[in-house]
Design a protein that fits this description.
Strand content of chain B: 25-35%
Shape of chain B: globular
Order of helices and strands of chain A: EEHEEEHHHHH
Helix content of chain A: 40-55%
Radius of gyration of chain A: 16 Å
Shape of chain A: globular
Oligomer: heterodimer
Structural class of chain A: alpha+beta
Number of helices of chain B: 16
Largest sheet of chain B: 7 strands, mixed
Chain lengths: 161, 688
């Protein structure tokens, strides 16, 4: 089946089985290996990508579903200013997720801040509840997200000027 | 390792023409392999069995060993029997399906709690004073039996090994915490010199997670294929394999018989430890020795008898997890002492302080501090009163509360030469450009530990951070620094870096550059009969702590919610309190995941989810720092503290004792309706 969609801002077309998982498509066909696979059941959050701006678990998306959609992986997102906000926010808080859940957590934080520009602790924990890795503590994660929110607010404020 | 200039995990590596490998595993728990029937092998596939091993078909850890590939016998379901390799993964999978192995099953040994003599692989015995006299003079004897189930992995990182074939030499990439063991195992298996094998440690989980000897097994299998086929190989475990067949933290059953005097003070103890090592007891010596030395906790042990047994069962071999047995033992001893306090009608805050060993008196300060932070005494008394007033868990509609307190220490450093007979070393070199290189085969330190190493060097040599390089571990360019377990990064490796830098400082203004020094750790060796407790110098360093856990139990759903966790830690120097606090908090969350065990079974899910905590509670952490001493590790301490404090709180909330970890709502329900268990020592029958 021919599937056309936008991947990290570029139009792409692949010929693949309609049931093939997006996570496998990204890793095997496009070589985008920073999207990891964990549970293959939408639980752990390691395979998180942005699907039309929303966070989804790419292991649960079959190929036929992504037709004409926009997919952004961590590789594409890492070129943006929003990524820099989150990365520096995390570093200032001393939060260093392991390489395996890093992509999922970063994208989840981005989606969270889009919806809640100044989230409180409970909102942050709820927003990250789909990322199940416990490589890091939650205090630094919460502080990292708050730092990222401040960074984002600052930059958006500067842009408005 | 790099692939297209991106540093990735081993499992992400791909190279055109490399071979993929699949393991064909035994489908029976114990028995003989009668025959292996395989259809005609296509040219694009190779099948490797034990008969193809040119060297020794063994992976060894000190006195113990296991086969790399099962030959005539198989001792656990999932034991590797054959390796199939080819360039097409699907073709390999299809061919694997067509192989038929005929077995003759033998009896299985599943129980480690009530075992046969033949199952005992190793035993240890420690006797101090006269426990028999203590029991003869006892006013009261309290018995208890405590069970810890297997610990699951904390990390999602899949097990994978890459082998590069370089003309009669091999380069191995794997996430091992013991790269020299990988090298030595491979050299023995393929029958070549150690110089022909280079092992490079890749990114690994910050927790042990069964990465001590298991990567050596996988690497030996992959290297075997590479050596035979003269090609690069990728050996990647599937998620289901990872869940079912990778080592877990050992299960344990620990029984106490405690003699008390009229005032409820400890007179003596008789402690029995059974630990399940799985089919091959590879780490049993170190594991059991540590458990025995920690068995009496931080309490008076002038009259104590400790008997430990490492028990072989027909299950996948277990590996070392955080604490190397300490978390199991501390769960048992702290749960037991909380129970004793209650049976003695005493506040555990009072009882535990009154029964501390003489050299642990400084713990009183920590206990007081933790109790003050958490308002433990007032809450404990209130919840105790509420518990006594209600008749039955099932009649109460409001949520029930409980609070528990536990004390423990974390012992770092290996007891004996079990895991490494050679002195563990590092090399520190200052070159002409003033750049300092630190060479250690310790696994990737992580940002926080790296900061400690760099600061140590900075302070001694006055060199800026930009001029300090920590060389990635490999077995050619870095010396053997031993296995990266028991927080040796923070303790032993930091101490070695300090010594190395101090040596360079003495020489740097009189000797020409470059200056290179090698420093090694002296191993403290103890006999198993000395009857030492953890306060003696069996361990290179020790940190201690106290935790209080407060929970709320819903009597309708049997769900628990943690209202708060307070932890006070006595450690050496703390370079960065924020990072140290983050490490402790991570340890607390990981420990909670063991308490509640919500990782789903592999049968239900196609993949693998590491253990995780259900909800994140309020956590308060306080450090009692001693800036004059070296830093000691604290990350594994919560694993020794939290489970017993959680169980003590749950027992108070529910009104009856729990004696095992993990505890699920289903288990709470079972305990609450079975009245017989309320009257005796609480343990479940063998069936789950």
């Amino acid at each position: 089946m021919i599937i056309e969609f936008q991947l990290n801002g570029k139009e792409v077309s692949i010929d693949t089985a309609p049931e093939k998982r997006l996570a496998d498509i990204l890793r095997e066909i496009f070589g985008l290996l920073q999207t990891k696979t964990g549970c293959y059941s939408g639980e752990c959050g390691a395979c998180t990508v942005l699907f039309n701006g929303d966070i989804v678990q790419s292991c649960m998306l079959p190929a036929f579903y992504i037709k004409n959609s926009s997919i952004i992986t961590i590789e594409g997102f890492s070129q943006t200013a929003e990524y820099a906000d989150i990365k520096s926010g995390f570093e200032r808080a001393g939060c260093f997720p392991c390489g395996y859940c890093h992509a999922g957590k970063i994208l989840a934080v981005h989606a969270l801040l889009d919806e809640h520009p100044t989230p409180d602790d409970i909102t942050i924990l709820a927003g990250l509840s789909g990322n199940k890795c416990i490589c890091t503590d939650y205090s630094s994660l919460i502080n990292g997200v708050k730092n990222a929110a401040q960074n984002r607010k600052k930059i958006r404020g500067e842009r408005k000027k | 390792m790099d692939n297209d200039n991106i540093t990735l995990f081993t499992g992400d590596y791909y190279k055109e023409g490399m071979l993929y490998a699949k393991i064909i595993r035994s489908s029976i728990p114990n028995g003989k392999i009668i025959s292996i029937n395989k259809p005609e092998i296509p040219d694009s596939i190779s099948v490797i069995s034990a008969g193809h091993i040119p060297g020794i078909n063994r992976l060894s850890v000190h006195d113990w060993s296991m086969p790399v590939l099962a030959d005539k016998d198989t001792r656990y379901e999932g034991e590797p029997v054959l390796l199939i390799c080819g360039t097409d993964e699907k073709e390999i999978e299809d061919y694997a399906e067509s192989i038929d192995i005929i077995y003759e099953t033998d009896y299985t040994l599943l129980s480690f709690r009530n075992m046969l003599d033949e199952q005992i692989a190793y035993s240890n015995r420690i006797i101090k004073g006269d426990p028999d006299a203590a029991f003869a003079n006892a006013f009261q004897v309290i018995e208890g039996e405590y069970i810890t189930e297997a610990q699951n992995h904390y990390s999602s990182i899949p097990q994978c090994v890459i082998v590069k074939y370089l003309s009669k030499k091999l380069e191995i990439f794997c996430s091992s915490r013991w790269p020299y063991h990988v090298r030595d195992t491979i050299a023995d298996v393929i029958g070549t010199g150690k110089k022909n094998i280079k092992v490079i440690s890749t990114h690994t989980s910050s927790s042990c997670d069964g990465n001590i000897w298991f990567p050596s097994l996988l690497a030996a299998q992959a290297a075997l294929i590479s050596w035979k086929e003269k090609k690069d190989v990728c050996m990647r475990l599937g998620r289901k394999e990872q869940e079912l067949y990778t080592p877990k933290g050992a299960q344990a059953k620990i029984s106490f018989k405690t003699a008390l005097n009229k005032e409820g003070l400890l007179l003596g103890q008789d402690i029995s430890i059974n630990v399940n090592t799985g089919a091959y007891p590879l780490l049993s010596t170190e594991l059991l020795d540590r458990m025995c030395r920690n068995a009496s906790g931080l309490y008076k042990d002038s009259n104590v008898r400790i008997r430990g047994k490492a028990v072989v069962t027909s299950t996948p071999p277990m590996d070392a997890f955080n604490g190397l047995g300490a978390s199991q033992v501390y769960f048992a001893v702290e749960t037991h002492t909380s129970r004793i306090a209650e049976l003695s009608q005493s506040d555990p805050y009072i009882w535990k302080q009154a029964n501390l060993a003489a050299d642990k008196i400084k713990m009183k300060e920590l206990i007081s501090s933790a109790a003050a932070m958490s308002d433990f005494r007032r809450k404990f008394a209130s919840y105790e009163m509420l518990k006594k007033r209600r008749k039955d868990l099932t009649v109460k509609k409001n949520k029930l509360r409980g609070i528990g307190l536990s004390i423990a220490c974390q012992n770092n450093g290996l007891i004996s030469g079990t895991l490494n007979n050679e002195p563990n070393s590092i090399i520190v070199r200052l070159d002409k450009e003033g750049i300092l290189y630190i060479h250690t085969s310790a696994s990737e330190p992580g940002i926080k530990t790296r900061e400690i190493w760099i600061k140590t060097a900075e302070e001694i040599l006055g060199i800026s951070e930009e001029k300090i390089r920590i060389i990635p571990a490999d077995t050619i360019n870095t010396p053997n620094s031993g296995p990266s377990i028991l927080s040796r990064h923070i303790t032993e490796i930091t101490a070695l870096i300090k010594k190395g830098c101090q040596s360079i400082q003495k020489k740097r203004f009189r000797d020409p550059l470059p200056i290179e020094v090698k420093r090694s750790i002296k191993r403290v060796r103890l006999s198993s009969d000395t009857g030492n407790n953890c306060s003696e110098t069996a361990f290179s360093s020790q940190s201690s702590g106290v935790s209080v856990v407060e929970i709320e139990l819903d009597p309708v759903t049997y769900q628990t919610e943690i209202r708060g966790i307070w932890t006070v830690i006595d450690c050496g120097r703390v370079f960065n309190k924020v990072h140290a606090g983050n490490s402790v908090e991570t340890g607390i969350i990981q420990a909670l995941s063991w308490c509640e065990d919500i990782s789903p079974m592999a049968e239900k899910y196609p993949g693998f989810i590491p253990a995780y905590a259900n909800k994140i509670p309020e956590i308060s952490i306080n450090f009692h720092e001693n800036r004059k001493t070296s830093p000691v590790s604290v990350k594994e301490l919560p694993g020794n503290l939290i489970p017993s404090a959680y169980i003590a709180a749950l027992s108070q909330a529910a009104g009856f004792y729990f004696d095992r970890i993990p505890v699920t709502p289903n288990l709470i329900y079972k305990y609450s309706v079975n009245q017989k268990l309320l009257e005796q020592h609480i343990y479940l029958p063998e069936d789950k």
